[in-house]
């Protein structure tokens, strides 16, 4: 168990982060035409708007909460006077609401993608698989709330903060920090790192893009006026004489009568004798 814990929480994080960084850069450089969300809005709009709004709002809230909650140094919360127990209760409440929103929206999108014949026919295996992975991860995250409610002192949250910050600062022995946490937390961490691992190979890459190029792009606007504009005078095409295009004729051959040709031949023979 010690070796498995070391592999999953001491080595696997660096494998997942390396593939995430390098894979995203290589795909953006070599496969830019595949760098898209692959929307199916043109095929069926029903369930898309509501499901997409719930899913994306929930994802943004969850991502922001995890980023700030795990990677903010502990001394910052201590300096602000935020108790660890209060931070854990806030994470449970806000994360629970955002998680439910994201789960409901994601299930709507997954149902639409799997049970609509037109969308299913144009979808790839990766499109459905990454949605299933995300829904599983959301379910695990929501399942951690009752476990967290059993210890509201924030002690368990400190373990995850130290582990995440230790990974990014290359601190040795970080796997030991989460060795004794509840198995559901471990499953949540492993699946989260797996999503980071497959991230560059899925449609999730569109979340790394922002339309910043449009800010400096020269715009064009076509305007059709209702005013009567003067007609432009048409210029007639130039007229060339027919002799320019005439095909030059070859000179006619001079015809010599047959008797003349025979007499000339006879004279030539006598001269040769």
Fill in the CATH topology of one domain.
Fumarate Reductase Cytochrome B subunit
The CATH architecture of one domain would be Up-down Bundle
Gross morphology: elongated
| Helix-strand string | HHHHHHHHHH
What Rg is obtained from the alpha carbons, in whole angstroms?
39 Å
Structure class: mainly alpha
Q: Sheet bearing the most strands, described?
A: none
Q: Could you tell me the number of beta strands? A: 0
What gap, in angstroms, lies between the N and C termini?
124 Å
Give the secondary structure arrangement, pairings included.
Layout (H helix, E strand, L loop, with lengths): L1 H29 L17 H24 L2 H7 L3 H32 L1 H6 L2 H24 L6 H14 L14 H16 L43 H4 L12 H15 L1
Helix pairs in contact: 1-8, 2-4, 4-6, 6-8
């Amino acid at each position: 168990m010690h070796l498995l814990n070391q592999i999953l929480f001491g080595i696997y994080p660096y494998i997942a982060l390396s593939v995430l960084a390098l894979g995203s850069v290589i795909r953006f450089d070599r496969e830019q035409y595949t760098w898209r969300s692959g929307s199916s809005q043109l095929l069926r709009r029903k369930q898309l708007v509501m499901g997409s709004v719930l899913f994306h709002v929930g994802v943004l809230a969850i991502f922001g909460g995890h980023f700030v909650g795990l990677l903010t140094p502990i001394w910052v919360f201590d300096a602000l006077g935020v108790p660890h127990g209060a931070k854990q209760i806030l994470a449970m409440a806000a994360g629970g609401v955002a998680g439910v929103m994201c789960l409901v929206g994601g299930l709507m999108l997954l149902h639409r993608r799997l049970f609509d014949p037109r969308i299913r026919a144009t979808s790839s295996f990766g499109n459905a698989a990454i949605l299933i992975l995300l829904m599983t991860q959301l379910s695990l995250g929501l399942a951690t709330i009752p476990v967290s409610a059993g210890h509201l002192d924030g002690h368990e949250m400190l373990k995850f903060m130290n582990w995440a910050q230790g990974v990014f600062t290359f601190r040795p022995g970080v796997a030991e920090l989460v060795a004794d946490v509840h198995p559901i937390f471990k499953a949540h961490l492993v699946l989260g790192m797996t999503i980071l691992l497959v991230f560059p190979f899925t449609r999730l890459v569109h979340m790394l893009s922002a339309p910043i190029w449009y800010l400096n792009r020269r715009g064009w606007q076509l305007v059709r006026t209702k005013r009567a504009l003067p007609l432009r005078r048409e210029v007639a095409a130039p007229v060339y004489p027919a002799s320019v295009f005439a095909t030059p004729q070859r000179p006619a051959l001079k015809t010599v009568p047959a008797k003349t040709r025979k007499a000339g031949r006879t004279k030539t023979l006598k001269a040769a004798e």
